[in-house]
Amino acid sequence: MSDRTMALVTGANKGIGYEIAAGLGALGWQVGVGARDEERREAAVAKLRAGGADAFGVPLDVTDGASVTAAARLIEDRAGRLDVLVNNAGITGGRPQEPTLVDPATILAAVDVNVLGVVRVTNAMLPLLRRSASPRIVNMSSTVGSLTRQSTPGAQVGPIAAAYSTSKTFLNAVTVQYVRELRDTNILINLACPGYTATDLNAFSGVRTPEQGAAIAIRLATLPDDGPTGGFFDDEGEIPW
Ligand code: NAP
Fold first, then answer.
1. 178 in catalytic set
2. pLDDT at position 210, please?
3. Residue 84 phi/psi, 5° resolution?
4. Domain for residue 31, yes or no?
5. For position 2, what pLDDT does the model report?
6. 57 CB contacts (<8 Å, ≥6 apart)?
7. In a domain? residue 8
8. Closest approach atom of ligand 1 to CA 64
């Protein structure tokens, strides 16, 4: 067992998740690299370790309950607790996503990863987070999940996305319920938006680097004990719900 801060980042083999893992590793933390594909996971771990991070692989498909349970067991065996959970794994779900055209299966798939995946992982990790002196949960959302922004004519909120945007709105709503239930604990839970970031998710059309996209999650993962809980933030500050 180690005294060093133990973090788990889901979907950490590439994109923003990889950079969150790198950023937390640079703080001297132990970082579990949650990823479903063994080859991609081990390649990311090797690269993070070559950069000096104390990274280790955590086999994790957030849609698979058995995989999530095994991931919690792995963290427990390694550290006996978890200090920081970053629920970063996400998918857009494919096209079309106009609500009049979308296949309901596309919506279900996005919800399975982006919402239920967060519930599965969070609930499996909660017993380990409860053993931490300063537990933090960061859920990776998006401004496209903001109903205020989506319903403001002319606002920059990406394409019409009845699966992706709505899954992030759903994630925000579920996160608020976690915040309510866990209000009397020391667990700080916040939602992050990385901004429009060049990754596989958008065929690298984003304007921010994955490192820039990772910054807000790293900030929320490293909040002091008197930091906020139940907020929805990007680098600019609070995002309207
Ligand atoms: P990305 O490069 O496509 O990375 C997504 C990560 O999620 C990958 O590691 C992927 O693993 C993983 N993942 C997908 N399904 C999974 C599953 N069932 N189990 C475990 N891992 C799974 O995308 P990104 O842009 O870095 O996105 C990271 C987060 O930021 C997402 O939640 C996304 O919605 C959010 N976000 C991104 C942007 C943006 O502009 N990029 C903006 C707002 C919010 P594989 O390699 O195995 O597919």
1. no
2. 98
3. -135, 130
4. no
5. 67
6. 32, 33, 35, 38, 41, 42, 44, 45
7. no
8. 18
